[in-house]
């Protein structure tokens, strides 16, 4: 669709039309909890001032725009390096600080042993913390089996 409008008596034309939108890739693959960026080019006259996406899954459409669920800034997460050892049976506390302007809803830790990643959630037996109010991980009654790299 293309529109033309007379701008003044000199018969100059201003081209006004729908924006031309190009999405660079046609297929994006991501693992759960990993960011996906859709590379897009928008050419428009006049310039575009509002952009939104429509996501359709099983004939159900969701509109995604800045500030909508699914579009979030990344929280700033810091886990101070701690190479510590504790006695068997003692608690071990791994500190995590999260700063975000948006509400944090899901917190989990990952432990790597021999290249195998396991996730630790709030309801994982033998731990406490791991929630929006207290993202730190406390391992209750530590044993040698709790050794590993935690992130």
From TrEMBL:
It comes from Mytilus coruscus. Gene3D superfamilies: Immunoglobulins. Residues 75-151 form the Ig-like domain. This is Ig-like domain-containing protein. PROSITE patterns: IG_LIKE (PS50835).
């Amino acid at each position: 669709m293309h529109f033309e409008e007379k701008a003044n008596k000199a018969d100059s034309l201003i081209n006004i039309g729908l924006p031309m939108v190009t999405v660079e890739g046609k297929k994006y693959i991501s693992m759960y909890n990993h960011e996906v960026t859709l590379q897009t080019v928008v050419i428009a006259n006049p310039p575009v001032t509002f952009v939104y996406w429509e996501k359709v899954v099983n004939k159900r459409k969701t509109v995604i725009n800045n500030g909508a669920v699914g579009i979030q800034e990344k929280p700033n997460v810091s886990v101070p390096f701690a190479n510590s050892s504790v006695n068997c049976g003692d608690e071990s506390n791994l500190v995590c600080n999260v700063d975000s302007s948006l509400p944090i809803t899901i917190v989990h830790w990952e432990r790597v042993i021999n290249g195998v990643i396991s996730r630790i959630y709030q309801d994982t037996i033998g731990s406490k913390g791991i929630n929006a109010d207290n993202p730190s991980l406390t391992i209750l009654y530590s044993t040698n089996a709790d050794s590993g790299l935690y992130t």
